[in-house]
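Project standup — Tuesday

K.O.: blocked on the structure for the chain from last sprint. Re-posting the sequence here as requested.
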Amino acid sequence: MGTEATMGVIARQNWMQPLEEGLQKALHKLFGAAGPAGQKAKDFLNGTWVGHPLHVILTDIPLGTWTAAVAFDALDAASGRKHWKDAADAAIAMGLVGAAGAAVTGLTDWQDIDPPARRIGLTHAALNVGGVALFTASLLMRRRKSRGLGQAFSLLGYGLAMLSARLGGNLVYGQAVGVDHTAGRELPEKFTPVLADSALIAGQTIRSNYRGTPVLLVRSGERIFAMVETCSHLGGPLSEGKLEDDTIQCPWHGSRFALEDGRVLNGPATHPQPCLEARVHKGQIEIRKRTPASEPSPTAVVEPSPAVTSS
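H.V.: unblocked you, prediction finished:
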């Protein structure tokens, strides 16, 4: 079955909707009940400190070790040497430990994604649970000297893990989960006017545009901040978000960014927001892409002009 057909079958499983919604609400409640500590734990599991989804990193552990276990079993069958048996068993055990970490981080990410990716993600998780169960059974059978049955369970578990990995690939490449939604945006190399200075009121957010790239503009005192308006997490409109203490919070999933340099303050986002230099020139707010020379001092520039009069 092709990828599109597989995704179509999953999309038609409407009986999953109450389960999806209930589990997401339970996860939100779990982290929310812990207050600031819950937010810190969520940020850690999302991978905001890495600048990359932590789940994607941890999935390499079970997939890699279980692939090695299957290979070691094949070498054991060919040679009958004990060290291949020991290597296969150790690889399975290591994979189970890695799978636990991948599961916790995956669920943390999953609670902040929307349909249709939400259903694909839940199916992905269910297949992983099946794979873990089979590899656990395999390890138990091996320790009980039922090595042939243990190897059979390993092959079945590996098949489920590969099918799950296929869905995981679709989440990234098909549904754009975990990727930077600000990547590839066209930004001006030279100062370019995008908004009349008089249109930007202090303490409010406004969405402007540069050649199809939405730009968030915020005035705070004598400073003007400018950044790509599309949230790096899943593309939420930051101009509709909550502005507080020179930070902006995405209205979709709650990611919070520093206006000064775009760094992630709270997840689920892991990628920072691209920021721009900004200035006022001849009554217009002008923006340009930050140059390497401007990076050490990320404060937006306001250049007053004699032509601009205060109202």
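K.O.: great, moving the ticket to review. The chain is about 45% helix and 15% strand. Residues 296-302, 304-311 have pLDDT under 50 and may be disordered.
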